Amino acid sequence: MSSYYDILGVAKNSSDGDIKKAYRKLALKHHPDKGGDQQKFKEISEAYDVLSNPEKRKQYDRFGKDGLEKGFGDPFNMFASMFRREQKCNIIDRVISLTLEEIFKGKHINLTFNIQKICDQCKGSGTKDGANSNNCKDCHGSGTKVYTRQLAPGFVQQIRSNCDRCNGSGKIVDEKDKCLGCHGKQTVLSENSIEFDLPPGFNTNNVIGVKAAGHQHPDKQNGDVRIVVKQLPHSIYKRNGQNLIVEMKITLLQALSGFRFKLTGLDNKTRTIKCGKVIDKKEWVVPNKGLKDGNLIFHFSVEYPKELIKDVDGLSKILGFSKDQSEEDDEEMLEI
User: Which pLDDT belongs to residue 114?
Assistant: First the structure.
């Protein structure tokens, strides 16, 4: 009779990780749902049941199979428990929309959302106190079923989906024994919240991942929450990385003689921008006045008159020139 080590194809001094890896590979290959031999699957599961337990393995190494207590767990249940513990609940995706001012200053986020939470009343068993549940016969307690579909001669696709009989729980509970809190579903809809800080100038291309803050299930790892921050459109500024861009149309006279204008920043401070002669389509940069360490960049577009006007006064009026344009000294002034 083959030893448990031979059945799993591992050496006697193999690590726990090697034994688990070998079992996983063989169990997937020989599982009856995938066309494997049920007796072979039972042998593999029995070997793993012993070698994965330090006490049983020690006893087996010393006395052999006869030295072990009789009786092994349901191989399908053991297989299901192992693989379901490695599964994770579905990811929750959330989108946060922030103004450019909020991104500039940084913001404390308090996000509330609904999750499936393990039922407090039955602790995730789905049953009343003292009642038992049985493994679903359709999926052997795994919560999933594998369907095989032939795509073409020699090409087969395996599709895994939740078992429709047990609703993916792997358990069947009599109606009279179901928990009154979750009605046998093991989880209930509940509200969860997370808090975190977005630093000033946060890059909206980043995705924030919060581990294990999402859905729960007694046989799975808690799901994650994935948060995407989007920027709302701004009436004045456009963002390019950490740079802020302002697009403005100016008259020909302004381009030739220079001009000044007021601009309200994302910090709600109003500044006077003093600009010299402008070359059309050229970028004008004010260092370190954007987001974080970014710059403030102006794109000036010159609007040329459609016809030549000989009258200087008329031309001045059309181009917006004022003879008594005065210096303004009430706000911070930026020269570009």
Answer: 96
Write down the H helix ranges in 37-177.
38-51, 54-63, 75-85, 100-105
Distance of alpha carbon 225 from alpha carbon 88, whole angstroms? 12
C-alpha span between 26 and 284 (Å, rounded): 67
pTM of the complete model: 0.59
pLDDT given for residue 298 in this prediction: 95
| Nearest alpha-carbon partner for 246 in 218, 285, 279 | 285
Between strands 296-303 and 283-286, the pairing is: antiparallel
As annotated, the residues of the chain forming the CATH 2.60.260.20 domain(s) are 237-335
Helix (H) or strand (E) holding 23: helix 16-30
Residue 125: what are its φ and ψ, rounded to 5°?
-80, -25
Selected residue with higher pLDDT from 18 and 161: 18
Q: pLDDT digits over 34-67, tens only?
A: 777 888 888 888 888 888 887 788 878 877 776 6
CATH class of segment(s) 4-73 = mainly alpha
CB contact at 8 A, 318 and 309: yes
Q: Would you say domain 92-231 falls under CATH 2.10.230.10?
A: yes
**Of 71, 224, 228, 218, which is closest to residue 141 (Cα–Cα)?**
218
In terms of Cα–Cα distance, which of 197, 198, 170 is closest to 184? 170
Give the three-state DSSP class for 235.
coil
The reported pLDDT for the residue numbered 336 is 66
Tracing tokens 């999926």 back to the chain, one arrives at 139
